[in-house]
Design brief:
This protein is mostly helical and 208 residues long. The chain has 8 helices and no strands.
Length: 208
């Protein structure tokens, strides 16, 4: 696992345009950038392109990095912004009305929470019906969740980001992110408590 000293040395090498520094950056962060981009873009080719773009941008802009946050947080923020730009461009180009709705690129937008599909309950077993009802209630509860708690829940439990990645996107400290996430989960659990006895869930429905 990398520590701040490793990143500090890498940053100095990047600033000095040292031989091998871009390759070291790729080895350290290439796969992490790719995985984060893939979570948003859901397309391997797009994620690969974003990865190359982000690595190039980090190399070119290393001297502008002020060190206000960890190097990894800066890289994840660049990745998030690049992925969001790609999604916005794709949505602008798309005119097909039958295309599945994508997540909004704005975490403050209610459209960041996808609308659950309406199921034919007559063809569902009891527990599947309960799960569908719970899923619909979950989306409603997420929309009603205060923004400060909704954002961490969306990033961590829906998008599957790590704490470090989500903290970088929201530009808050890891402990702040964890506190808000904990509070958001508690609110959701209280709102969904009446379903608890009717389901044999092996894991939370959010994040599945």
């Amino acid at each position: 696992m990398r520590d701040r000293q490793d990143d500090a040395r890498l940053l100095e090498r990047l600033k000095a345009h040292a031989d091998g520094a871009p390759a070291e950056l790729t080895a350290a962060y290439g796969s992490k950038i790719y995985q984060l981009a893939l979570r948003y873009l859901r397309n391997r080719e797009d994620a690969e392109e974003i990865t190359q773009d982000v690595l190039l941008k980090v190399c070119r802009n290393a001297e502008a990095f002020r060190g206000d946050a960890a190097l990894s947080s800066w890289i994840y923020r660049i990745t998030f912004n690049a992925a969001m730009s790609r999604l916005r461009a794709s949505r602008h180009r798309s005119t097909r009305s039958d295309e599945p709705a994508a997540w909004s690129t704005d975490l403050q937008d209610d459209r960041a929470i996808p609308e659950p599909l309406v199921a034919d309950w007559s063809q569902m077993a009891d527990e599947r019906i309960m799960r569908q009802q719970l899923r619909q209630r979950l989306f409603k509860a997420l929309r009603e969740l205060p923004l400060i708690y909704r954002q961490p829940v969306l990033l961590r439990d829906i998008q599957g980001m790590s704490t470090e990645e989500a903290s970088a996107v929201l530009q808050v400290k890891d402990q702040t992110l964890k506190s808000r996430l904990h509070r958001g989960r508690l609110i959701l659990r209280r709102q969904l408590a009446d379903f608890a006895g009717g389901l044999s869930l092996h894991r939370p429905i959010y994040g599945t």
